Structures are given as C-alpha cells and as structure tokens.
Amino acid sequence: MYLSSARQYFYQEVQQPDEQIDLAKAALYIAQEEYPHLDPQEYINALDTMADELQERLPSQSYPLLIIKTINQYLYDDLGFTGNTKNYYDPENSFLNQVIDRRTGIPITLALVYIEIARRINFPMSGVGMPGHFLIRPNFPEMEIFIDAFNRGEILFPQDCQDKLNQIFNHQVQLQPEFLATVNNRNFLARILMNLKSIYIHQETPNHLEKALAVVERLLLLFPQAILEIRDRGLLYYRLGQFHLAAKDLETYLNQVPNAQDTITIHHILDQIRQK
Question: Is the pLDDT of residue 1 over 60?
Fold first, then answer.
C-alpha cells in the first residue's frame, strides 16, 4: 500500500512506545494529509512560543489552581481561543494547524493545545475521554479536578461532570469511573480520528468517503486488529466500488465475529459483490 509522506510520518510516530508518542506531531501529521504544504515544525514552534510567553506570566507561587488560572487567562483572554459552537462539525476543528491559526476548535483539539502548552511549562496534564465531551486533568493523584478546554478552561469536580453528562445526553446518565479515566496517547489520537470519520461519513459524497477511508486506515495503523474498523474499511471500499478489497475485509469481519448483530447485512453485501 502506498503511503504519503504525511502517512509515513504518522506511522513512524505511532510505532513508538505510547509514552514516547509526540501528540502534537502526530496530530499535525493527521492534518498534513488534508494540507500537504503544512510545515509541522512551524506549529511546534508556535506551541513553544506560547509556552515561553506563558512562562513569563506564571505566578511566583506554583499552586496548581493558580497555574490553571494563569493558563486560562493566557489562552482564552490574551490569545482568544474559544470553542467553536457555531460550526462544531466543521472538519477543520479537528486539524491542529487550523485550531492554532483560527483560535477555535472542539473539546479534544483545544484540550491538545492546552496539554501541549502545560507540558512545556512542566505542568503535566492528561486527556480524559468522557463520553460526549473530552476533558483534561492535572497529573496529580491527590487532585480530582477536571478542566473543560472547550469552555474557557472551566474547572469541574466529579459532580459537575455528572451534570455535564446529563446535559449532553438530555437524560440522567450514571457516571462510571471509566468515564473520567485518562486516555493514553494512541487513544487520544484515535478519538481525533473518530471525530473526523464520523463527519466525513455523514457527508455522503465520494470525496468525503475517500477521506473517511483515509481516516480508517490511520485508525488501523494505531490499532491493526480493530475488527470494527476493518469492517468499516470494507464498507467504505464497497461504497467506493472497490469490491475485491471490500469482500476481503468483510469476510475477515465475519470470520472473527460470526455472531455480530449486523451479520445478515454483511452477508447481503457480500452476496451483492459476488454477483458483480
């Protein structure tokens, strides 16, 4: 399979041990497939510059809440970063270069900017994959607080997260411990890609289906055995008229998950392929 230079860089980055993956670089390699002339180093330098400017604003007393307050003032008041509530499903919200240039994004990409700047001032933070809304938390076990990068760095406690879940899903949702667990780097990148995949698939045009396929291919670079992604790659191949490749993936899916709920549908598609 031919890999573009951006795809090769992404592959090389995510082949490292998880803790060594550079999230910002990997996210910029994702964006580089959409923007081939993008220079990742330019945006790494931009993050470095932000961190240097923030360093000069840090309080003399290094209390975590004071540091968070300073980061918030710098990112949201001084630089004007904001959640994109007007066009939430714009794919540009998922590309780190566009988020930095436009100063707007969705929860996970704004969280990425926040985490990357915090890391550079030695204030380590991790992503929290809460359903429906990505959060951040400081890497201090004794501090059970969460930060909503989409809402100007709002500080949340577990009960606030419960309230936010209820609001997102418009009904009472029981907060589970895993909802507030931190995610590793591969899962962080996978969530960015899953957002893009969903946006492209719902666009329905051949161009967007090809972009969705490219996203699934990168998900499979992260998790080569992800059987649902293999199925979805097969379905995208089918919709794009690449029937041989579609059949191969869909047969793999049925062999591995013979009792899946969509077995009848997949068998029907395979029957259609064989008749072509």
Answer: no
pTM greater than 0.70: yes
pLDDT at 143: 82
Name the DSSP class of 126.
E
Query: Which residue shows structure tokens 């972009």?
Result: 211
CA-nearest of 211, 178, 184 to 195 is: 211
CA distance 41 to 48: 10
Closest CA to 109 of 189, 32, 43, 55: 189
Q: What is the rounded CA–CA span in Å between residue 52 and residue 72?
A: 15
Structure tokens at 142: 């004794």
In whole angstroms, what is the distance from residue 250 CA to residue 269 CA?
9
Confidence (pLDDT) at 60: 87
The C-alpha atoms of residue 52 and residue 35 are separated, in whole angstroms, by 27
- State the virtual CA torsion across 73, 79, 80, 84 in degrees, nearest 10: -110
Q: In whole angstroms, give the CA distance from residue 262 to residue 66.
A: 51
- Coil, helix or strand for 87? coil
What are the two backbone dihedrals, phi and then psi, of residue 105, each rounded to the nearest 5 degrees? Answer: -175, -165
Q: What is the pLDDT of residues 77-120, one digit of tens each?
A: 999 999 999 999 999 999 999 999 999 999 999 999 999 999 99
